[in-house]
Design a protein that fits this description.
Oligomer: single chain
CATH class of the largest domain: Alpha Beta
Number of strands: 24
Shape: elongated
Bound molecules: zinc ion, magnesium ion
Distance between the termini: 67 Å
Structural class: alpha+beta
Length: 499
């Protein structure tokens, strides 16, 4: 088919216009940036090699220039980055050519890329090097080969290779399990290697490092291993690639060590707060607590719709809070029993006792029923009823609840974790009370459940409970309450059952 000349000219003009339009559209639209670090490791933009990254050092005493010079002397010299939160003070002595100092804190007048180390790592691998380390030719390559060509069987998820730094105690592998739901990190001596205790050079893929939520948080090894454990990564310790270190170490004086330890403790505290880890179980079984105590506020704010904030974060009650609730419950029960006040486990607390002898792992308070006519036997309740908040000799605070006709025992003046005491009285054989909160379990019940009361293990002590726990709980919560756990207010947040 042949087109007349004028039609052909028209077609050509339209085609040209379309082409022009396409060009304008291409240039006018910002193209998504190509993934570099943080993208695929084999993606263009990352070149073979290992970048040496120095992150763990103290401003006031360090050997950063020494480490940098030692690695700069390797042939070929690896790229070298020193990363600090802000410009070190006192300033670092001059670094060898090729080494670069980056600060993570952005400044309002500086380009953002200056505070983003991931934009400055161009190699496929990164080695995180502790202060004072001396380079050994070939070690970084051995580590990289161990990572890329290692055992690597099915199910092997080695993403970090660790090389010891020579010192008085050789580093060792630990297993590490982090449960964010339980705000807990647990180290154990046996099991897969998920953390290294002691000084080590750590090598990983650039892509892996910068895909972590907190790639360069300090203390760097703690932060790295916890995030790695959460992702199911394992670590390979390479004892044959030990690095030498400067002697004496950069923090040789007692004062320097003391200052560094205090700074490290503060950083660890901040890190665990950022991660939401409140309890650390050490390999020997000792526990370290980073959560609330008597002198701090409760870990969570006012509870709305019976659903505490942590449930919305898919977490359960912080372990420090459970510990404080147990102590408060034990204290309240001891005081009531000593004064001759009849009490029993109520609601969710009785449910927890029936299920596993403890507070339900996501509960936020403890509930006890008491005979209203007995309240006057207890001095603390008498004074609380008169309107005063009373601090007992163990620092627990007893007061009348402002919300209605019941009492509260708080863990402390500052930490408002509490046990509620609900005064019931019998009327025609039925236990009733004056304040009702409209919860399903908040109902009257026959007094025979309390005649007699029976002992039941709860929260580490023996509490008193209604005599037919199952019937009592099914009356309050409905059939199957013991076997079918649910969050306090499923309409707001449901318990997701594990598959
Ligand atoms: Zn707490
Ligand atoms: Mg409760």
């Amino acid at each position: 088919m042949r087109l007349p000349p004028c039609q052909a000219a028209l077609c050509a003009a339209i085609g040209l216009n379309l082409l022009l339009l396409l060009c304008v559209w291409r240039w006018g639209t910002p193209q998504p940036p190509r993934p570099r670090a943080g993208g695929d490791n084999t993606a263009p933009g990352l070149t073979p090699g290992v970048t040496v990254l120095l992150r763990e050092f103290e401003d006031f005493a360090n050997d950063v220039p020494g480490v940098a010079r030692s690695f700069a002397a390797l042939r070929p010299p690896p790229p070298l980055l020193v990363v600090a939160d802000e410009t070190p003070y006192p300033p670092l002595p001059p670094l060898p050519p090729g080494a670069r100092l980056l600060t993570l804190r952005p400044a309002p007048d500086r380009p953002p890329r200056l505070s983003r180390p991931e934009l400055h790592v161009r190699t496929r691998h990164v080695a995180l090097v502790p202060d004072g380390v001396r380079a050994t030719p070939g070690h970084l390559e051995r580590m990289r080969d161990a990572l890329e060509n290692g055992a690597g069987g099915a199910g092997d998820n080695t993403r970090v290779v660790a090389a010891p730094v020579r010192g008085p105690t050789p580093p060792r592998c630990l297993d590490l399990h982090v449960s964010l739901r339980e705000w807990t990190a647990r180290y154990t001596p046996a099991g897969p290697c998920r953390a290294v205790e002691g000084d080590a050079v750590l090598l990983l893929r650039t892509r892996d490092l910068f895909n972590l939520s907190f790639p360069l948080a300090r203390p760097l090894p703690t932060a790295l291993f916890m995030q790695a454990a959460l992702r199911g990564w394992t670590v390979r310790l390479l004892p044959e690639a030990a690095f030498a270190a400067r002697r004496p170490p950069p923090l040789a004086t007692p004062h320097g060590r003391w200052k560094a330890e205090a700074a490290a403790r503060a950083r660890r505290r901040r890190l665990l707060a950022d991660f939401g880890v409140k309890r650390v179980v050490l390999p020997e079984g000792r526990e370290r607590w980073y959560g609330c105590g008597k002198e701090t506020a409760r870990c969570f704010g006012t509870v709305h719709a019976r659903t505490p904030q942590y449930l919305h974060q898919d977490r359960w009650t912080p372990p420090c809070c459970l510990r404080a609730l147990r102590a408060t419950a034990r204290r309240a029960a001891a005081v009531l029993a000593a004064a001759g006040v009849r009490y029993w486990l109520e609601g969710g607390s009785l449910l927890g006792a029936a299920r596993h002898g403890d507070i339900i792992p996501w509960d936020y308070d403890v509930d006890l029923g008491i005979y209203r006519e007995d309240a006057g036997k207890c001095r603390l309740l008498r004074e609380a009823a008169a309107g005063a908040a009373v601090v007992d000799d163990e620092g627990f605070v007893w007061e009348k609840a402002p919300e209605g006709d019941f009492f509260r025992v708080h863990y402390s003046r500052l930490n408002r974790l509490h046990v509620d005491l609900w005064p019931f009285y019998p009327r025609d054989g039925v236990m009733t009370k004056d304040t009702w909160l409209g919860h399903r379990q908040d109902v009257e019940f026959p007094e025979r459940f309390l005649q007699p009361l029976r002992p039941l293990p709860f929260a580490g002590f023996t509490a008193m409970a209604p005599n037919d726990v199952r019937a009592f709980l099914e009356l309050k919560f409905g059939p199957g309450a013991i076997e079918n756990p649910e969050y306090p207010n499923p309409a707001v947040k449901r318990l997701e059952r594990e598959k």
